[in-house]
Amino acid sequence: MNESTLCHPIVDGELLLIRKQRGLGEGNLVGPGGKLEAGETPFEAARREVREELRVEPTGVEKCGEFGFHFRDDAPEEDSMYVHVFTADGIEGNPEATEEAIPEWHAVDDLPYDEMWVDDRIWMPHMLDGETFTGTFVLTDEGGAMHSYEMELGVDM
Ligand SMILES: Nc1nc2c([nH]c(=O)n2[C@H]2C[C@H](O)[C@@H](COP(=O)(O)OP(=O)(O)OP(=O)(O)O)O2)c(=O)[nH]1
């Protein structure tokens, strides 16, 4: 199973997202993140990816959730991803556009969910409310629609 991270800096009611320039979900608005490297913890990977993608250091990084992500029409193992989700209470530096990512700040109470993965509108409101969660999301139509999902709230992280 592939393991990856998402890290979401939230500062003054705004969420720092990226317009993803390549890889899975290219063109989508997502939290900065990427795959774990060998020997790295999810926490270390979450911070490294923010640094690499936006050239800033996240502060107050805390884990808030994890979820399995699958495509209904593919071989079960092939496209499965296990995602560790974090928040950050600030950043040091000014986000820069890189080859991988263009930074965008969005008000947490007015997020453009139609430009994000279809599962984000389900778990992200819980993250923004300070809740913890675990979930499994199964997508169809190359990620265009939700096939089924399960989610549990208030899980120890
Ligand atoms: N917001 C959001 N992100 C997701 C979902 N599913 C999913 O894999 N991701 C994220 C987790 C990782 O940050 C990223 C994995 O994509 P990738 O395999 O293209 O990795 P990458 O190119 O960004 O990273 P890397 O090569 O630098 O390691 O996508 C989802 O449903 N919602």
UniProtKB/TrEMBL annotation:
Task: Identify which top EC class this enzyme belongs to.
Answer: hydrolase
The cofactors required by this protein are: Mg(2+)
Give any Pfam family that matches.
NUDIX
Describe the location of the Nudix hydrolase domain by residue ranges.
1-129
**Catalytic reaction equation(s):** 2-oxo-ATP + H2O = 2-oxo-AMP + diphosphate + H(+); O(6)-methyl-dGTP + H2O = O(6)-methyl-dGMP + diphosphate + H(+); 8-oxo-dGTP + H2O = 8-oxo-dGMP + diphosphate + H(+); N(6)-methyl-ATP + H2O = N(6)-methyl-AMP + diphosphate + H(+)
Could you name the domain of life of the organism this protein comes from?
Archaea
Question: EC number(s) on record?
Answer: 3.6.1.56
A GO molecular function assigned to this protein is: dATP diphosphatase activity
Q: Which Gene3D superfamilies match?
A: Nucleoside Triphosphate Pyrophosphohydrolase
Q: Where are the transmembrane segments?
A: none
Q: Which InterPro entries did the record assign? A: 8ODP (IPR003563), NUDIX_hydrolase-like_dom_sf (IPR015797), NUDIX_hydrolase_CS (IPR020084), NUDIX_hydrolase_dom (IPR000086)
Print the keywords alphabetically: Hydrolase, Magnesium, Metal-binding
> What does the annotation say about its assembly with partners?
Monomer.
Q: What does this protein do?
A: Oxidized purine nucleoside triphosphate hydrolase which is a prominent sanitizer of the oxidized nucleotide pool. Catalyzes the hydrolysis of 2-oxo-dATP (2-hydroxy-dATP) into 2-oxo-dAMP. Also has a significant hydrolase activity toward 2-oxo-ATP, 8-oxo-dGTP and 8-oxo-dATP. Through the hydrolysis of oxidized purine nucleoside triphosphates, prevents their incorporation into DNA and the subsequent transversions A:T to C:G and G:C to T:A. Also catalyzes the hydrolysis of methylated purine nucleoside triphosphate preventing their integration into DNA.
Family label: Belongs to the Nudix hydrolase family.
Designated name of the protein: Oxidized purine nucleoside triphosphate hydrolase
The scientific name of the source species is Halovenus salina
